[in-house]
Amino acid sequence: MTTGSSSNTGPTHKLVEAGVTLLIALFGVIVIVGSMKAGINWGAEGPRAGFFPFYIGIFIVASSAINLWNGLREDNDDLFAEWGQLRQVLSVVVPTAIYVGVMPFIGLYLASMVFIAWFMRWLGKYPWLTVLAISLGMPIVTYFIFERWFMVPLPKGPIEEWLGL
Amino acid sequence: MEELVNLFHGFAVALQPFNIMVMVLGIVLGVLIGVLPGLGGANGVAILLPLTFSMPPTSAIIMLSCIYWGALFGGAITSILFNIPGEPWSVATTFDGYPMAQQGKAGEALTAAFTSSFVGALFAVIMITLVAPLVASFALQFGPAEKFAVYFLAFCSFVGLSKEPPFKTIAAMMIGFALAAVGLDSITGQLRLTFGVTHLLNGFDFLIAVIGLFGIGEILLTMEEGLAFRGGSAKINLRVVLQTWKELPKYWVTSIRSCVIGCWMGITPAGATPASFMSYGIAKRVSKNGSNFGKGEVEGVVAPETAAHAAGTAALLPMLSLGVPGSPTAAVLLGGLLIWGLQPGPMLFVEQKEFVWGLIASMYLGNLVGLIVVLTCVPVFAAILRVPFSIIAPLILVLCAIGAYSVHSSTFDVVLMLVFGVIGYLLKKCNYPLAPLVLAIVLGDKAEEAFRQSLLGSQGSLGIFFSNTLVSSIMILGLIALFWSVIQQGYTRLRAATA
Asked: What is the ipTM of this complex?
């Protein structure tokens, strides 16, 4: 699918998998620490709040150790993904992060319009007319379905307030 | 024949005009969800769940379960026409469905797939009608130890039956349990694992996790593959349908076997995906046309589709009668029950007769409506697939955000959704199964409660889980499921040694 110089390089599957496994193990350690704070022994009312999650944490760490061992032992030089593919993935993650980040301030509708328009124009290279039609149309349809018919309020910003919606 | 009377009352409920309307709406939305990449049964239902908050619970569950049936039907369309499984459970359908389409037999393949789906679902619904009330009345006697044993069995089946490495399944599951534990401890009322973050006081909502893990994660995977849909056109006319229907009874053995496999895999929460693979594999081994499998054999479409749909439907049996969902989508439906103020589990059959039997009746009708809708509207749905991904992707992302926001009207949840999405992408790429993670978030609190209450009764001795015949047999079944692959390996080695 990808062309050009970035076609055959990228992080190896082994490396990424080891990283993910270590992150999971770290999560397990956090769970164990949090459980110990909450108390893992028996109190007057029976097992205390940290009792159950403590063992869950132990399970996470233990199974991650086995997964790490299995993963490193495996003879596998496959790529996790090519750099070009990862760039594709990031080209979705980054704008989505911005979209999610500004939503509390400008509301869902405006953010969605800009987001859809950006996506279509930048990644899809559509003519402006198509871009405008869909990026304006979708939030308006959403407004009627969610707010009017099913009465589910969605986050609004200053513009909606100014329009009196 | 009290069940029969109840079922007829159920039909009366399901046939109310409003309920028929939501049924058709649900099926159409469901097929759309099944066809579009990034929108699957579980997260599709999760996104649309907030729309049902203002509906009566029976109509709400009818709509959501019909979305599920629709998604099960829809997955086959993309598999056969485009060689792209819209849902994981339709991967096995591509093996023979796509070659058939390439040979110009797309109509036959689609008809066979839809009809088999219907047969599988019908078989499973009949089983639910007959078995669910029995299981529920049996489960009414369960104490905390028995309840925990049922959860234990459910989670062990995941480890033993899933095709992912067992320790990855365990890790994924335990992450789910840990996420479920965050927030207020339901027994002592104490806070735990929040590390002072106020947003975490109420813990992680599994709906957000579902939308992120399955929805956003799937979009990221699709982006990475740089997906472009290319495929044959779909035309189904009455002649092809009738011709295929005439041919299908030939495969009745395969159908029945696939139904049984599907029901079994659906009840034990292995789910539709392994069921479809297993059924395909066995059919290939047993059939006299086995060597033609993979080249466009109708039987190779019948087997996985029947099993997948039977499993997807059967997954509702433990959800309704025990409160233990058999699949992520069933888990989302269970979450819906809680939101509408219903307590899932055996008491439903006593206290909410109208709801339960309305739902069961709607399964019969919904699948029939589904069959008609997909047979008549395939070209429309196939056309939607030709809409380029760079238009569909942002729309789906926005829909996911709306769904995540409207669960608790919280923008923090939308951020969480994205985090879950990236995690889902990484986990999926590293071969961690996501279904046990989601089910553990849903059932974590209940499993923990049952576990702690059992231990309270026994003063901390684990012997309580083997204290009577009932609880020990469920626990032993669980252990067998847990070590199933080891047992299987041992058996084959033993046979090889004696032969």
From this structure: 0.91
